[in-house]
Design a protein that fits this description.
8-stranded mixed β-sheet, alpha+beta, metal ion binding, single chain, oxidoreductase, Oxoglu/Fe-dep_dioxygenase_dom, 5-stranded mixed β-sheet, disordered N terminus, 363 residues, IPNS-like_sf
Length: 363
């Protein structure tokens, strides 16, 4: 029984004896399973066994309403002044009410997005032993990530793997199956798009037009390519645990498997995938910059039992020394630099296992 073909009995109503048996069975068969998979069962054996002994299992994915995000057609920006202004206002309203929206006619060619995914698949199909090497693709030790090293329960275990690449490190990459050249091409397009979106959103707030040009260099952002392997017990763990993004904006290209959920009006809702759109969400820095007008929304990815999922997230970030200050008074947040924010996150994650985030900087 491989990782791909394990099945739970009835959703989150997993038979405890079967669950324990599956854990031991997986231990015996890890060496026979596909070599590409991270050793989730081996690494998190204690957590899985502890959960098997619990009388009640955490249910994470049942009964969620599926909604479509607000759709912004960026081609309207090139029409008359009225259509342009309506498009910008629609974007701002989505950032206020949802913290998320999706965009079409965004200028990133479908061919490039498809090529990025194909190169991404090639990377993740490499043997785990190769992916986990310290110099994989000639990147830093922390570029390839999987699971959650700080997980203490199924609630904070991410059943996924990722390659997180700072744009300043792209030049160090090995030219592996055209991955480097494809990322360079995509990063240029995504950076231009993110800057445009950030500037349009700033118009509703009175932020100076060149704010983002001054504070975000082409190399200050990052790209995270995600793979979510089939998960044997999708009702008991996440693909990625609930979190907010640190940056100004995130641009996400995802496949049609689905799984993205966001917290809206106090409840979790599922986002219906749109094959023609990119997903955009507000990050912590833009919430602070906007003085709480735009919302950095908690979101997560649920696990899928039978189908792997791929996504690529472009994080539009300022330089490390950039100071984030609310654009209006009275300020909700004290001034802080990207460096200070990152250091606070590291402290909180180490101490509590959670990011905590903007609440640390409230006045």
């Amino acid at each position: 029984m491989s990782l791909h073909c394990q099945k739970s009995a009835k959703g989150d109503k997993v038979n405890t004896h079967k669950f324990k048996a599956d854990i031991h069975q997986q231990d015996r068969e890890d060496s026979e399973a596909m070599a590409i998979e991270p050793p989730f069962f081996e690494k998190y054996k204690a957590i899985l066994q502890s959960s098997a002994n619990e009388k009640e299992k955490p249910s994470t994915v049942e009964g969620f309403e599926e909604l479509e995000l607000p759709l912004i057609d960026l081609s309207h920006l090139n029409l008359g002044p009225l259509e342009r202004q309506e498009c910008i206002e629609k974007m701002g309203q989505a950032a206020i009410e949802w913290g998320f929206f999706q965009i079409v006619n965004h200028g990133v060619p479908d061919e490039l997005l498809n090529r990025l995914k194909q190169e991404q698949i090639k990377v993740f199909q490499q043997p785990f032993d190769k992916k986990s090497e310290n110099n994989f693709l000639n990147l830093s030790v922390q570029s390839y990530r999987w699971g959650n090293p700080l997980a203490t329960s199924l609630r904070n275990l991410s059943w996924s793997e990722a390659l997180h690449i700072s744009l300043k490190d792209i030049s160090k990459m090995d030219e592996y199956n055209k991955l480097r050249s494809t990322i360079e091409e995509y990063a240029e397009k995504a950076n231009f798009l993110a800057q445009r979106l950030a500037e349009y959103l700033a118009q509703n707030l009175g932020i100076k037009a060149n704010y983002f040009q001054e504070n975000c260099s082409p190399s200050s952002s990052s790209l995270r390519m995600n793979r979510y392997p089939p998960c044997p017990y999708p009702s008991m763990m996440f693909g990625i645990i609930p979190h907010t993004d640190t940056d100004f904006l995130t641009i996400v290209s995802q496949d049609q498997v689905g799984g993205l959920q966001l917290k809206r009006n106090g409840r979790w809702v599922s986002v219906k995938p749109n094959p023609k759109a990119l997903v955009v969400n507000i990050g912590d820095f833009y919430q602070a910059l906007s003085n709480g007008v735009y919302k950095s929304i908690t979101h997560r990815v649920i696990a899928n039992q039978e189908t792997e999922r791929y996504s690529a997230a472009y994080f539009y970030c300022p330089t490390y020394e950039t100071v984030i200050e609310s654009c209006s008074k009275p300020s909700l947040y004290k001034k802080f630099s990207f460096k200070e924010y990152r250091e606070q996150i590291q402290k909180d994650v180490k101490a509590t296992g959670d990011k905590v985030g903007l609440s640390r900087f409230l006045l």
